[in-house]
Amino acid sequence: MMKPVVRLADVARAAGVSQGTASNAFNRPDIVRPELRAKVEAAALSLGYAGPDPKGRLLRAGKVHALGVVVNNSLGYFFNDPFNREFMRGVAAVCDAEGAGLSLIASHDQKSAAWSIESAVVDGFILQCLEGGNRLVELARKRRLPFVAVDLYPGTDAGSIIVDERGGAQAAAEHLLGLGHRRFAILTLPLIDDGRTGPVDRSRRDATQYNTTRERLAGYAEALSAAGIAIDSVPIVESLNDRRAEEGARMVLDAAPEATAILAMSDVLALAVLAEAVRRGRRVPQHLSVVGFDDVPEAAASRPALTTVHQPIMEKGRIAAGMILSGATERVALRTALAVRDSTAPPPETLRR
Amino acid sequence: MMKPVVRLADVARAAGVSQGTASNAFNRPDIVRPELRAKVEAAALSLGYAGPDPKGRLLRAGKVHALGVVVNNSLGYFFNDPFNREFMRGVAAVCDAEGAGLSLIASHDQKSAAWSIESAVVDGFILQCLEGGNRLVELARKRRLPFVAVDLYPGTDAGSIIVDERGGAQAAAEHLLGLGHRRFAILTLPLIDDGRTGPVDRSRRDATQYNTTRERLAGYAEALSAAGIAIDSVPIVESLNDRRAEEGARMVLDAAPEATAILAMSDVLALAVLAEAVRRGRRVPQHLSVVGFDDVPEAAASRPALTTVHQPIMEKGRIAAGMILSGATERVALRTALAVRDSTAPPPETLRR
DNA sequence: AGTACATCTTGAAGCGGTTCAATCAAGAAT
DNA sequence: ATTCTTGATTGAACCGCTTCAAGATGTACT
User: Strand, helix or coil at A28?
Assistant: First the structure.
């Protein structure tokens, strides 16, 4: 027994109407005489017709009414990161509102990424988390669909959403300087996509291939050097931004035991430092100040509440999705702002200067 | 200047070959003479052809090679729930491995859900988090695509994955009874989809429309009544399972101040109870025992580590995705197992019996 | 009765590809 | 020199649906 897939044409025939009318019966029921419509519906029912197949509609309509989010981590990691979650909330909000679909396109290995991007049935892409020279941008561009890059400026033919990373980082460092800190350590996001972690030397620092990391580092460096502290004298430790942030926290506290302030390049890292500090019996902010970056929801909820650089994460998602669905490709720049909470305070008297 | 969309036919014409050959040049490069292939590629390049459009391919191929996950919360909430994240990791792992796409279908309001399900371009659906009589199952069924329901048995024409909820709940209660507890309170997931929270009376308890909730409650009740404790004598408090779990935790501790053990119907709820207990200065497990349900990653990481009912969340995702992609529609039942950790202990001497 | 106007319905042309049977050219075998 | 193979290319038929110009049917008005 074969599976006899029922098509619109079959229904039309069974109902004794033309295919055009049958189509209308489903899509614009109001313009077809009730009597005929009933016949069509009856035929559909008795044949077990599943309704117009989107595949056919799609081809005809041109528009898919769906967007793809390309994530370069595996999806598991992607959703463990609160930043991504928040971002996706923004994207999802727009999709919901517009009734648009949402496809996730994982790209952990380059080959599958290519295939996925080439064959995704979407109206456009949002590219998240990209290294500087990533081929994903090339692939997306080749597809000739609108795409927007987040935290990266891929050129004038695409949309992009960036925030003032440098200014935010600067503000974070200035805040700590203003409190009187002079002994810093930096816990940085990956500089290079080779999985290495730990202390960073100058050559590696200069080789950063991630836009976000580079800018934030530059912001820290500017503020510190304006206060007479050379970035080369500051211990910098590189860490992954998932569960393994714990390890990064341990390493940075080991590498700079005398630091009174930690500049963490993400809230995930900062929260890990907070946890590690507790483990070591160093009180925050009395013994140690910590400032994060991003202002994910968890930052305000932690104890102590995390001082961090706020950026409009969900807003970014909303804007990105909006751009794709509207077909626009502008370049949007957003501000960051320091959110001072309870994880920062002046350094202990004895350690000042 | 119109946008002259380049089609395969245009490329073929420009290259002076048939459309069939042009198609092969892209999809089966090996069977076309290198010389011709080069011509096609050159033509494509100069015309700015984006490569075969998946929309066309789709129609021809029949298979979409993508699956849809229908979530009934808004996506924002969906991904805030660690259970869903874990589940999606399983789904994503399979999609990655098979090179299949993954579409998210939000269904927060019934009308948009209908439209989304009817017009999603996928090979099948995974239905998550469904109330008993939900129309989503009907919609999915109507679409005549394979679908699998998670934590629900929708009938023999569809796949389903269920776990031994009742047995797990029973084990949780028995564990506490075995430790000597006699004064319980239950913090339950929603019983009815009306947003109400707080103390639950008997009639509401019997009206549960959620399969999972019903089963777990039944498991608790069985174990307790076997020990001579009537379920009607146990305070039951209903709570939402997102951020508002905090409120539920407060309510249950208020409603049953003398309870020595809390049966929480999810880890999210249990973790909220842990946090609230800290706030009230009640030590866990010395003063209060708490057992959760699900065993999300956070459960093992909390302090104290949460005693909970383990269920193979990621595995469920993997199986669900596998079933869709392979077109199977079996019924899979999985086991639960109690994971005893540090949030449970015998009740304080003074309060025993 | 004749004309004008609505209201439906029909038939056919795509939408952008893939595939398959048939054709063709060229070298191998007889 | 003729027949067989083999391998590459072509042409046309779909895939399932929407849309649109043109035709048909019926109603209202003069």
Answer: coil
